[in-house]
Specification:
The complex is a heterodimer of chains A (about 950) and B (about 525). Chain A is mostly helical and about 950 residues long. In chain A, about 50% of the residues lie in helices and about 5% in strands. Chain A has a two-stranded antiparallel ribbon. In chain A, strands 3-4 form a two-stranded antiparallel ribbon. The chains are: A mainly alpha (about 950), B alpha/beta (about 525).
Chain lengths: ~950, ~525
C-alpha cells in the first residue's frame, strides 16, 4: 500500500505525467494518503511506524480472506467509526475533515478492549483491533506520552481557514523583559517550555542587523560611533524611524516582495524578436513596488492593484504598472503553463494554499476540489498582456507600459479531465469562483472601461505622438523636395549653358523626374497630416461623452474615411513615382556602361518593381472608385470596452476582513524575512501538508493588527491616540517587530540553553543570517563609498554588475539572464522564491577573494577614504573594522592586522602596479597603501562581513 | 540552522588522509551536547592556509584511495562505481546509423511505408500516444530512408554498430547498449528531459548529475563534485538547466570548466588584477587568523566553521582546477590515443581526456557536451550522411580512447560511462536526405562500473520505429547509474520535495553484472 500511496501522490503533479504513469503502472486504488497523514499530523514523531499504514483503519487480507478487495479494502471498527462520523457530519463541512474527526474520537474505545483509542495509538497498538492491546508497562509509557503531548499543546487552535480573531495578549513571567505584545506571545512559550531567552545583542550588532534588515546597507562608521555614544532611551527607535522613512527601505523590502511575487525581467531574445517569459518594460512594476512600499501603501491596496488595476483604476498609468504582477507570468511557448503559473503562484503568494495540487484531481490534503481549481483559473482566463505607449517613446518595443487587460471576456474555461489540456470537459463550462473552504463568494460584475482604457488612440499623449510623427514626416518631405528642387535648378543651368550635350540633358531630365517624385512624396505627407486630423476629429465625435449617432459624426467619419483612402492612394501613387524615378536612374547608369551585367540586372529589377508598384496603385485606384471606403481605421488598436470584473472581484474577496488567509500569509512573509523562518515555516502552504506554526496565537494577533491596528506608534512621539496608523500598514508591522525584545536578542547563547531549543523554533535567540546576494554586492560597493543609491529605471544588463554601481535589484534578472556573482550567492530563483537559500560554498569564497568587485572596491575604499587619515597602523586597522564590520577590533585582531600591514609593506612590489590613483585594476605603487588595500580586501572577505549577527 | 551545507563541507576526509578525522568532524561531533570551548575552536579549526600541504593536494592517483561507506551517509548499498562520465550528443543522434542498425530500412529504401508491411506503424494516434505538447513541424515521414552507412559486428558479443562509430565498436565487449528508450516530446527541449526526466515545459528540476553530487558528496576537497565540459545545450533546449540542480540548490549544480584559453571557472584567479601569489597567500593567511579570532566571540557557530572551510576549499580549487586541466602532463602516447594530434578529434579528445583526469581526482560526475548550442549539431534534418559522418569523426576516436584508457588504468571498474542523446531520428526521409526528430525510439549505452559489457537490452521493431521490446523511459538510465553508485533511486530525495515515480525511474538490472 505504501507504493500506492506514492502513486497517488504522483497524480497530484503535472498533468502530462499521467499518461506515462499509466504506461508504467496499472491504475491503482485511490488510497487516501491524507488519512494516514492525519495520524502523523496529530502525533508526529510519537506515531509508531506500524500505525502509519493502511491496516490502522482497514482490514487486512489475512483478516478478510479470499474475497479481499485490494482496491477497496473494508474498514475495521476504528476506520468504520471514522467513516460514520464523516457521513454524519459531511466530509466537506466544518469539523468533517479527517483531522477533526480523529480528534473527536480519541477518547473513545473503538475495539472495546478497554483502552481508549489515543492511548492505544500512543502505545503503538491498533485502536481497531481488540487483540492488539498495550500491556501495563506500555500503558504507563503511553500515559506519559499523552501527558507530554498535552503539555506541548499551546492551547491555541491553529485554524488557518477560519476568519482571523484577535487573541488576547498573554501574561508571562517575562513581562518585564518584553517591550511589545509580540514579546508577550513569545514569552508565553518560554514559560510553557521552561526556556530562558538569551541576553540582548550588543549595540553594534543590533545596529548593523537593523540597518541590513531594513535598508540593506550597513551603517557607516560615523553612524556606528554616534549610536554607540548615544545613551538616550529612544536612540534605537529613532534610527528605526529614520530607516523606515528612507527610500532605501523600499529598495530593500521591494526585493523581498519581488521574490514572493516572482519578479522576472523578460527572457528570450529582443534581437530575434522572441520574448519567451515576462515582458520588456516590466521593470515599471518593480518601481511601483518600491514606490508603494516607501509611501507605505496599504498591503490590501497593493494586492488589489496588482491583480486588477486595469479594472479598478483603468485611467491611472501609474497604477497600471502594478499589473506587471500578472504580466510576469507571460509565456510565449505555452498559454497553458502561463495560466497554471498564474493560478499556482497567486494562491501560494497571497493565500498559501497549494491550489496547483487540485489541477488533475481533488486536492489530496485540503478540501479543495478539482472543479474549484478551474473556477479559480476562470478568473484569469480572459486576461492577456499588452504594452501601452509612454511619454517620450512612440515605439512600444523600445519603451512602454507592460500591463494586463481582459482581452477576451467571452472565453470559456473547462475542467481538464485528469488535468490533461487535450481533454477539456466541454459539457460543463466553469464559472469564476473561489474555494468554498475559505468562505464567502466571488461577487463578479463586469466593468465598463473608460474610452482611454480600451482605445489608447484617444489619449492626448498618443495623439500628440502621432501628430508629431506626421509633422516630422511632412517636414522631411519638404526638405527632400527643396533639395530636389535645387538639384533640378542646378541641372537646368547646365542645360542652359552653351556646351550642354546629351549628358547634361540626361542629368536634367533625371533631376526633373526626381523633383516630380518628391512632389508626390510631399503630397503624401500633406494628405497624411490631413487624414490624421480628420480621423481625430471623427474620433472626438465618436467618443465624446454621451455620444449619440449624429449626422455630424457621420459626415466627419466619411470625411476621415475618404482622406485616409486618399492618403493611402497618394502613398501608392508616390511609391509608383519613386520607382519610376529609380528606373530612370538605373537606366541612366546602364547607359554609361551598357554591357555591365550588374547594372543590367539592377535596371531590370527596377523595372519590375516599377511595374508592380504601378499595378498596385492602379488596382487601389480602381477599388477606391468602385467601392469607396466608408470607415476609417482607428489610430491604435481598440480593446474590449468591458472587463469581466473577475480579477477585481478576486481582489475584493482576498482583501476583505473576512478572508482568513491574506493577512496571515502577509505577516508570515514579513516575519520570515526578518527572522529567516516564518511563524508558519512553510510560507506558501498553510494547508494540511504544510508545517504548523510555532506561535499560532502570535501569527493571528499580527494578522489582526495588520488589518485593524491598535498599537500606537511609540516612535512618532506626539501621537497617543494610536488611531493614525492606517489599516494594512506594513511599516507598522516592521516597527512592531524590530522594536520587540525578541528581535533584539543576541545570536549567542549558552550551549545548555541551546540544547533546549536546538533549532531556535521558540526564538530564544536571534538567528545568525547570511546577507542575501544583492546585499553582499551592494554592501561591498557601499563601504567603498561607491554605491549609487539612485531609484528606478529600466533593467540594466546583468553583465555590467561590476561596471555599474547601481543597487543589485536594478539589474536584469530572468531565466538565463542572471549576474554570475549574485547567482553564486543564491540570488532569487527566477521561477519561485518564497524562501531564500543561504548556502556556504567555495565558489562564494572565490567570488569574494578573486572578483573584480571586491578587489577594485577595496582599492577604491583605501585610495578615496574621506575620513581621518589614520597614519597609525593600529588606528587605521581599528577604523577599518568599524567601517567594514561595524564593530571594534579586539586587541588580538589589531595586533594581527598591524603585523600584516608591516609584513605586506616590506614584501617586494608586484610586477604591475597602478599607474595612477584612478587605476583600480592594479595595486597601488605605494607599499603602505598597497598593504592597506590588502587589509581592506581581507576584511571584505571576513566571515562577519557577509554574516548578520 | 539557516545555511545549508554541502557534503564537501562536512566530514569527508581530505584526499590523501582518508581515515584521519578532520578538525571539523571533531568540532561537529562535539557540538550539540556540550558545544565547543573557545580554546578548542582555535585548535580544531587551526589548520589555516599555511598548514595546507600543497604537495598532498596536488598529488595524483589518491582520490580513489579507499573510502568507506560510512563517509557517505546517503549510500545505502555497496557501491559498484564511484564516478560517472556522462557524454551527451546534442541534436539527436540517429539510432539507426549508430547503435541500432536497421538493414530492413535499406531493403525498402525510397518506398512509401504504405506500400510496405509497416504501414500501421505510422498511425498518428499511435505515434503521439506518449508525447506531450507535440510540435507539428516534426513528424515521421513515410518515405523510408535506407541506412546511410554500413555496419559491422564487433567483439565477442557481436554487437552491430554503424560504421561511423567503428572505433567505439572496438570496445563492444565493454558496452551495454539499451535500444528501447523513448522520450516524452518531439522537439529539442528533450535535451533537458534526458537530464531531469521532466517535460521541457516544466522548467528546471534536479539533473542526474546534481542527484549524484547530492547523493554522494565529494572525494576531492579541492574540486567540484559535478563538472561540466564542452558547450552545453542552447537556451532553446534547456540551457543551463541541463546541468543545473533545480530545487537541490546551486551547491549541487554542475560547475562548468573551460578547457580552452579562458578562465576555467568564474573567479578562479585574481592575477589579472595584479594580485601576486605571495600577496594572495598572505591574504588567505590573515583571513584565516581573523576568522579564527572571530571564533572566540562565536564559538558554536556552524556557519563560521563552514565559511572557514569554504575558503580553504577555494584556496585549494584555485590550484587544483588548473592542475587537473593540465593536459601537458600526459604522455605523448596518451595524447595520441585521444586524437590530440588531429585537428578533427582534438577538441573532443581534450574533453574526454580531461574527464578521465577529473575522475582520477575524485570528481563524481563529469558531463561532456558535444555539439551544444541552438538545436544541437546532430540535428540532421537534411544531409544526414554529411552531418553524422563529419560529427562522428570528431567524437568516435576520443570516446573509444576514453574507454580504453579508463580500462587500462583500472578506472573503468568504478567509473560508469554513459553515452546518450535526446532522441533518435525517423526511419523515414525528411526531404531528400535527412531524418526528422524521433522520440518513439532511440538508444544509449553504458560501460564500466559494474555494467555487464557485451550486452544489448531491449529492441526496436524492424524499422527502428518503436521501442518494441522492454521500452524504457530516460530516468531508467538515471536509476541504473544511481543504483551502481550505491544510492537508492527510490528514496533519494529532499525533505518536502516529493518526487514522481517517473523521476525515480527503475534500474535496468538486466545490464548489470
Amino acid at each position: 500500500m505504501e507504493m500506492i500511496g506514492q502513486f497517488c501522490f504522483s497524480r497530484c503533479r503535472k498533468l502530462w505525467v499521467a499518461c506515462i504513469l499509466l504506461l508504467l503502472i496499472s491504475e491503482a486504488a485511490s488510497a487516501r494518503p491524507p488519512y494516514k497523514h492525519s495520524l502523523k499530523k496529530l502525533y508526529g514523531a510519537r506515531l509508531n511506524a506500524n500505525l502509519h499504514q493502511c491496516a490502522t483503519c482497514h482490514l487486512t487480507k489475512d483478516e478478510v480472506g479470499q474475497e479481499f478487495d485490494e482496491e477497496n479494502p473494508p474498514h475495521n471498527v476504528f476506520g468504520e467509526r471514522l467513516r460514520e462520523l464523516g457521513d454524519a457530519i459531511g466530509e466537506d463541512e466544518p469539523g468533517g475533515d479527517i483531522l477533526s474527526r480523529l480528534r473527536r474520537i480519541v477518547d473513545e474505545d473503538a475495539d472495546g478492549d478497554g483502552v481508549a483509542n489515543e492511548l492505544e495509538i500512543l502505545a503503538g497498538k491498533y485502536p481497531g483491533r481488540a487483540q492488539s492491546r498495550p500491556d501495563e508497562q506500555e500503558l504507563i509509557a503511553a500515559r506519559a506520552a499523552l501527558a507530554a503531548r498535552e503539555r506541548e499543546s499551546t492551547g491555541f487552535a491553529w485554524e488557518p481557514f477560519q476568519r482571523v480573531r484577535r487573541p488576547g495578549v498573554p501574561e508571562s513571567q517575562f513581562s518585564g523583559w518584553g517591550r511589545t505584545p509580540i514579546d508577550a506571545f513569545v514569552a508565553a512559550e518560554y514559560d510553557r517550555l521552561g526556556l530562558i531567552p538569551t541576553a540582548e545583542a550588543a549595540k553594534h550588532n543590533l545596529l548593523r542587523r537593523v540597518y541590513l534588515d531594513l535598508v540593506g546597507i550597513p551603517p557607516t562608521r560615523e553612524q556606528l560611533l554616534e549610536f554607540l555614544a548615544d545613551d538616550s532611551p529612544m536612540a534605537y527607535e529613532g534610527i528605526i524611524e529614520r530607516l523606515l522613512a528612507s527610500p532605501e527601505y523600499g529598495q530593500r523590502w521591494g526585493r523581498h516582495w519581488m521574490d514572493i511575487w516572482r519578479y522576472s525581467d523578460w527572457a528570450g531574445w529582443t534581437g530575434g524578436g522572441q520574448i519567451r517569459d515576462s515582458q520588456p518594460h516590466v521593470w515599471r512594476w518593480r518601481d511601483w513596488i518600491i514606490e508603494s512600499l516607501n509611501v507605505d501603501r496599504p498591503y490590501d491596496a497593493m494586492v488589489r492593484a496588482m491583480l486588477a488595476a486595469d479594472e479598478t483604476t483603468p485611467d491611472e498609468a501609474d497604477d497600471l504598472r502594478a499589473t506587471g504582477y500578472l504580466v510576469r507570468n507571460y509565456k510565449m511557448l505555452s498559454r497553458e503553463t502561463w495560466m497554471q503559473d498564474t493560478v499556482e503562484h497567486t494562491c501560494k503568494a497571497f493565500l498559501a494554499i497549494t491550489m496547483n495540487c487540485a489541477r488533475c484531481h481533488d486536492h489530496m490534503y485540503d478540501p479543495i476540489s478539482q472543479a474549484e481549481y478551474y473556477q479559480f483559473r476562470a478568473i484569469f482566463e480572459p486576461h492577456n498582456v499588452r504594452a501601452d505607449r509612454v511619454a517620450n517613446q512612440a515605439d512600444v518595443k523600445l519603451d512602454g507600459l507592460a500591463r494586463a487587460y481582459d482581452a477576451d471576456p467571452s472565453v470559456a474555461t473547462y475542467l481538464f479531465v485528469k488535468g490533461d489540456d487535450r481533454n477539456p470537459d466541454k459539457d460543463r463550462p466553469i464559472n469564476a469562483g473561489v474555494p468554498a473552504l475559505l468562505g464567502e463568494k466571488l461577487l463578479v460584475a463586469s466593468i465598463n472601461l473608460p474610452v482611454s482604457a480600451y482605445y489608447p488612440g484617444i489619449q492626448p499623449l498618443v495623439r500628440q505622438q502621432l501628430v508629431e510623427a506626421a509633422q516630422q514626416s511632412l517636414e522631411k518631405a519638404r526638405q527632400d523636395f527643396a533639395k530636389a528642387e535645387s538639384v533640378a535648378t542646378d541641372a537646368s543651368k547646365l542645360v542652359a549653358s552653351e556646351n550642354a550635350g546629351d549628358g547634361q540633358r540626361g542629368i536634367y531630365e533625371l533631376a526633373k523626374q526626381g523633383l516630380a517624385a518628391m512632389q508626390f512624396a510631399l503630397n503624401v505627407a500633406e494628405v497624411q497630416v490631413k487624414s490624421l486630423q480628420a480621423r481625430m476629429a471623427a474620433d472626438d465625435l465618436k467618443y465624446a461623452a454621451k455620444a449619440v449617432p449624429s449626422a455630424e459624426y457621420e459626415a466627419a467619419a466619411k470625411n476621415a474615411a475618404i482622406l485616409e483612402q486618399d492618403a493611402a492612394l497618394a502613398g501608392l501613387e508616390s511609391a509608383s513615382r519613386q520607382t519610376e524615378f529609380a528606373v530612370a536612374e538605373a537606366e541612366a547608369k546602364l547607359r554609361t556602361n551598357p554591357e555591365d551585367a550588374g547594372l543590367k540586372k539592377n535596371a531590370a529589377d527596377a523595372k519590375q518593381k516599377q511595374e508592380q508598384a504601378a499595378k498596385a496603385f492602379e488596382e487601389a485606384k480602381k477599388k477606391s472608385v468602385d467601392a469607396p471606403s466608408a470607415i476609417y481605421s482607428p489610430l491604435t488598436p481598440v480593446y474590449p470596452q468591458q472587463s469581466t470584473g473577475r480579477r477585481s472581484a478576486l481582489a475584493e474577496w482576498m482583501t476583505s476582513r473576512d478572508n482568513p488567509l491574506v493577512a496571515r500569509v502577509a505577516v508570515n512573509h514579513i516575519w520570515n524575512r526578518h527572522f529567516g523562518r516564518g511563524l508558519v515555516p512553510s510560507v506558501f502552504d498553510f494547508g494540511q501538508n504544510g508545517k504548523p506554526p510555532t506561535h499560532p496565537a502570535l501569527l493571528d494577533w499580527l494578522a489582526a493588527e495588520l488589518m485593524e491596528p491598535t498599537q500606537p506608534n511609540q516612535l512618532s512621539g506626539n501621537d497617543t491616540t494610536g488611531h493614525s496608523i492606517e489599516p494594512w500598514s506594513m511599516k507598522h508591522i516592521h516597527r512592531l517587530i524590530v522594536t520587540s525584545s525578541v528581535y533584539r536578542l543576541s545570536t549567542q547563547m549558552d550551549a545548555e540553553q541551546i540544547a533546549k531549543d536546538p533549532d531556535n523554533e521558540y526564538l530564544t535567540r536571534a538567528p545568525t543570517k547570511r546577507m542575501e546576494a544583492e546585499i553582499v554586492r551592494d554592501s561591498v560597493l557601499y563601504v567603498a563609498g561607491n554605491l549609487d543609491l539612485g531609484m528606478g529605471g529600466p533593467d540594466i544588463d546583468f553583465d555590467l554588475g561590476f561596471q555599474i554601481p547601481r543597487r543589485s535589484l536594478y539589474f536584469r534578472h530572468a531565466a538565463e539572464k542572471e549576474m554570475t556573482f549574485l547567482k553564486i550567492f543564491d540570488a532569487a530563483a527566477v521561477t519561485e522564491c518564497y524562501q531564500r537559500k543561504s548556502s556556504v560554498m567555495p565558489q562564494q569564497a572565490l567570488a569574494m577573494i578573486n572578483s573584480e568587485l571586491t578587489i577594485t572596491q577595496a582599492r577604491r575604499l583605501v585610495r578615496y577614504w574621506k575620513g581621518e587619515p589614520f597614519e597609525d597602523a593600529a588606528l587605521y586597522s581599528k577604523a577599518m573594522f568599524e567601517h567594514i564590520l561595524s564593530r571594534a577590533a579586539t586587541n588580538d585582531e589589531v595586533i594581527t592586522c598591524v603585523r600584516f600591514l608591516s609584513d605586506c609593506a616590506s614584501r617586494p612590489a608586484p610586477a604591475e602596479v597602478a599607474a595612477s590613483q584612478d587605476d583600480l585594476s592594479k595595486p597601488s605603487a605605494d607599499p603602505a597603501i598597497r598593504a592597506r588595500e590588502q587589509l581592506v580586501h581581507v576584511l571584505m572577505n571576513h566571515h562577519e562581513f557577509v554574516s548578520i549577527y | 540552522m539557516l545555511e545549508s551545507q554541502r557534503p564537501r563541507d562536512s566530514d569527508i576526509p581530505l584526499r590523501g588522509t582518508p581515515f584521519q578525522k578532520t578538525a571539523f568532524q571533531k568540532t561537529r561531533n562535539a557540538r550539540g551536547c556540550t558545544g565547543v570551548s573557545r580554546r578548542s575552536f582555535l585548535t580544531d579549526t587551526g589548520m589555516g592556509f599555511t598548514g595546507l600541504a600543497l604537495s598532498a593536494m596536488l598529488s595524483r592517483d589518491q582520490a580513489h584511495a579507499q573510502t568507506t561507506v560510512e563517509d557517505f551517509p546517503r549510500i545505502v548499498r555497496q557501491p559498484r562505481a564511484r564516478s560517472v562520465i556522462w557524454i551527451f550528443l546534442c541534436g539527436g543522434v540517429s539510432h539507426i546509423e549508430s547503435f541500432d542498425p536497421k538493414p530492413m530500412l535499406t531493403k525498402y529504401d525510397g518506398k512509401s511505408a504504405d506500400d510496405t508491411p509497416y504501414k500501421e506503424l505510422f498511425d498518428p494516434q499511435r505515434v503521439n500516444q506518449n508525447l506531450v505538447g507535440v510540435n507539428p513541424n516534426h513528424h515521421p515521414h513515410k518515405k523510408l530512408f535506407g541506412m546511410q552507412t554500413g555496419f559491422q559486428r564487433h567483439g565477442d558479443c557481436g554487437l552491430a554498430v554503424g560504421d561511423w562509430f567503428a572505433n567505439t565498436g572496438t570496445c563492444a565487449d565493454d558496452l551495454a547498449v539499451v535500444r528501447s528508450l523513448w522520450t516524452i516530446h518531439n522537439d529539442h527541449g528533450t535535451q533537458l528531459t534526458w537530464h531531469t526526466g521532466r517535460h521541457p515545459r516544466e522548467g528546471a528540476f534536479p539533473t542526474i548529475g546534481s542527484w549524484v553530487a547530492y547523493g554522494l558528496g565529494t572525494m576531492n576537497q579541492n574540486l567540484p563534485e559535478y563538472v561540466v565540459l564542452g558547450t552545453p545545450t542552447g537556451d532553446c533546449c534547456g540551457g543551463e538547466w541541463t546541468h543545473g540542480a533545480g530545487y537541490l540548490g546551486p551547491e549541487y549544480a554542475g560547475v562548468r570548466l573551460d578547457v580552452g584559453d579562458k578562465e576555467p571557472l568564474p573567479f578562479v584567479s585574481s592575477s589579472k588584477f595584479g594580485v601576486s601569489a605571495d600577496d594572495q597567500q598572505a591574504e588567505f593567511s590573515l583571513l584565516g587568523k581573523l576568522n579564527q579570532l572571530a571564533g572566540i566571540e562565536y564559538p558554536d557557530d556552524a556557519q563560521l566553521r563552514a565559511r572557514i572551510k569554504s575558503y580553504e576549499l577555494a584556496f585549494g580549487m584555485q590550484m587544483a582546477v588548473p592542475e587537473a586541466l593540465g593536459l601537458q602532463q600526459e604522455t605523448a602516447e596518451t595524447l595520441s590515443l585521444y586524437g590530440m594530434n588531429d585537428k578533427v578529434t582534438e577538441p573532443f579528445g581534450k574533453l574526454c581526456l580531461t574527464a578521465r583526469r577529473m575522475v582520477e581526482r575524485g570528481v563524481r560526475f563529469v558531463q561532456i557536451f558535444h555539439g551544444g548550442g541552438g538545436g544541437g549539431a546532430w540535428d540532421a534534418h537534411g544531409e544526414l550522411k554529411k552531418n553524422h559522418s563529419s560529427l562522428s569523426s570528431q567524437v568516435d576516436v576520443p570516446i573509444a580512447a576514453l574507454l580504453k584508457d579508463l580500462k587500462r588504468s583500472g578506472l573503468l571498474d568504478d567509473t560508469i560511462v554513459v553515452w546518450g542523446t535526446e532522441f533518435g531520428r525517423t526511419p523515414g526521409a525528411q526531404g531528400a536526405d535527412g531524418r526528422d526528430h524521433h522520440p518513439n525510439a532511440f538508444c544509449s549505452w553504458l560501460a564500466g562500473g559494474g555494467v555487464r559489457g557485451g550486452t544489448t537490452y531491449g529492441a526496436t521493431d524492424e524499422l527502428g520505429f518503436y521501442a518494441a521490446e522492454n521500452p524504457r523511459y530516460v530516468t531508467d538510465i538515471h536509476a541504473t547509474v544511481l543504483h551502481q553508485l550505491g544510492l537508492d533511486p527510490q528514496t533519494l530525495d529532499l525533505p518536502d520535495r516529493r518526487r514522481l515515480d517517473i523521476d525515480h525511474g527503475r534500474p535496468i538490472t538486466e545490464i548489470l553484472s
